[in-house]
Amino acid sequence: MVAVNEATAAELLSQPVTPGDEVKLRIAYLLSRSLADEGISDDLIDTLEEVLSDRPAGPAACGRKLDALLVRLGFPLCRRQRPEVAPLSDEDAARIADRFRRATRQLMQVVPHRVAMYPTEELRLLLALRDEQTPPDEALSYLRRYALAILAVLDLMGDDAE
Question: Which of 23-32, 95-104, 115-124 is least confident?
């Protein structure tokens, strides 16, 4: 580490910004605005819907046909406690987690240009979920928490983010 006295520091700080530095600052600003204007891809929206939608464990049409038959015959419908949810395959879970990690990286760059107040807690949660290692049997719940965290950040960014 180099020690600099006050006179040297004052001299360095008082030097004018060169035109080359101004151009670099302007390019950096325009590139960051360009990144912010790109928005969120449809691929991410599709992945969020895939994770947050109910994933029927069996053929859904069969249940509806049975319900229609019961109603037609005058029988009451069976009350289902909770719809069965099909587990994610390991490949699907890895693909979705990778997509969410790429989205987190993009959001970390875009969010400062799209919000009035920096969403510290929301981005902290995104980073924590990005770094979390989850067992395969808890993949769906982990990905749903991750999807909700991404949606919270997108909500803060406003309607023009999509």
Answer: 23-32
